[in-house]
Amino acid sequence: MEKLLASGQRVVTLKMQGGDKQALIKDVQYDPLGEQTLHVDFSELREGETVMVAVPIITKGIPKGQVDGGVLSQPVHTLHVKCLPEAIPEKIVIEVEGLGVDDVVRIKELKLPESVKAVDDAETVVVAVHLPRVEEVAAPVEGAPLEPEVLTAKKEEEPAEGAAEAPAEKEKKEEKKEKKEKK
Description:
The protein has helices at 2-7, 64-67, 161-182; strands spanning 11-16, 19-30, 37-44, 51-60, 71-73, 78-83, 92-95, 104-106, 117-118, 125-130. It is of the alpha+beta class and 183 residues long. The protein has 2 domains: 1-45, no CATH class; 47-134, CATH 2.170.120.20. The strands form 3 sheets. A 4-stranded mixed β-sheet has the order 7-4-6-9, with no helix packed on it. It has a 3-stranded antiparallel β-sheet with strand order 1-2-3, with no helix packed on it. A 3-stranded antiparallel β-sheet has the order 5-10-8, with no helix packed on it. A hairpin with a 6-residue loop joins strand 2 (19-30) and strand 3 (37-44).
């Protein structure tokens, strides 16, 4: 089973008591480390019946827009298609060499085999070449602090009005006492 899954095969022939049956590998569950196969789900295929599967999208080449400073982005990595089991493509290859800056490829522009129909929205962007966005930093305003104010830091406590006057009043009282004692 490991060799079969590693080969990328999607349609298999299962040898069963009632005879051989064609089946589509629907889902594979692996152990948490991805080393061992725990479970495989199959879906029986009937002659002439179409199936819906996800096919990987691969880009080929370096876009000419990348030479001009653009960046290739690929927001969609799989395409859902509907076709006969024997027509399931292994992958969909998109030639991106001709893409310039601000060029996009939508699902409706993909070259699919004749018997394969895309199920996803035709206007969805599969690959695009854009200039990288540069975030402008505002120049500091004159007189504004260069560093942000730390709101959690404790400010030096200013004595309350009554507390500030209290030591001075004490000194006056002590001076009066001293004067009275001298007399």
